[in-house]
Amino acid sequence: MKTITRSEIIQQLKKDLIGKDSYRGVTLTYSWLANQFGHFSLGFIPTVVIYHFIKDKPELQYPELWASLGVWLAWMLFEVYNFLGPLLLKVPTKLKALNKGEYTFTPSWLNLAFDTATDIIYFGIGAMAASLICSYHPEALLALIMLLVLVGYPAYYWYTTKMYLQNAEYPFQLRLSQWNQNIRDEHKTAVLNFLDNKEQGRHMLIFGSRGSGKTSLSVSIATEASIRNNCCCYLTAVKLLSLFFETSNPPQWNRLWSWRNCNLLVIDDINPGRPVKSDIITTELFYEILNNVDCGQDNIQHLKEKNIIWVMGSDDPTNLLEEKWENLLQQIGVPKSNITTIDLD
């Protein structure tokens, strides 16, 4: 399976730093860099301003340190509140997906805490850099060096994580904790087990009518997998059918991997679901295109051995949709024990 290499990280960094975003568009990695520069600036600028207000006070020694530490502490308290407020104070979030004020899937608090700590470090780097510019102090220099060393791994992790997210080409950004539609407890457990699974070859069929949240659930599951640095790929069924005739992995200008060598594949819009009752893509048609003369066996091998989320329509008992697609998966060699079905209706 594909992983992001060091050379690919360097190439992405060059793309983000050189060129005009109005011409090439804004990537998630570029946004992350801009965000961290913003955190640096919010530590740097207030420190300079406050220093110039307090530097002439005779009763205050080392105003450059007081200014930088005060600004850093203020931002630190803000970030801690920003992180713990919704958890400890039960403050309802304004996000539409969480408008009930509760979580269907528990947020990854450790991941969020790591993100908060990363922001705090960048605030500190800005504050200490400003302190040194205002007036040199060896303690400020030592603190700045320590923060620069400390930020090395978080910067590497978050930048590469943004690369995993943007190369999956999801239609929107949504974490699993933001998904708050109706789901049965046993299906919720099945989703978590699928996400925590370390093996390949697991398949999840998500059924639901229009508005049931099947696409958003599939994207949020895959997003969590991307954040865990798995190479994921989002495709509609019609797009995937056309790719079944490619005999190799042709290079794509905006993707580091294809559906063939990713860890997790999301196949969306296989069928629309209610109120449309008929099957747009039948299992017979899907298998016919899948098992084409040029690369049918290769296609089947990749589908069988890959983790895949199949976003279906409504499971109408008269059409036996679940049974048909489970039979198709078993036909290409997927054990029944590796197939999980989620019905959101």
From TrEMBL:
GO MF: ATP binding
Gene3D superfamilies: P-loop containing nucleotide triphosphate hydrolases
Record has Cell membrane as a keyword: no
Ranges in a coiled coil: none
Domain of life: Bacteria
Transmembrane segments: 37-54, 66-89, 109-133, 140-159
InterPro entries assigned: P-loop_NTPase (IPR027417)
Keywords from the named record: ATP-binding, Membrane, Nucleotide-binding, Transmembrane, Transmembrane helix
Protein name: ATP-binding protein
Organism field: Pedobacter frigoris
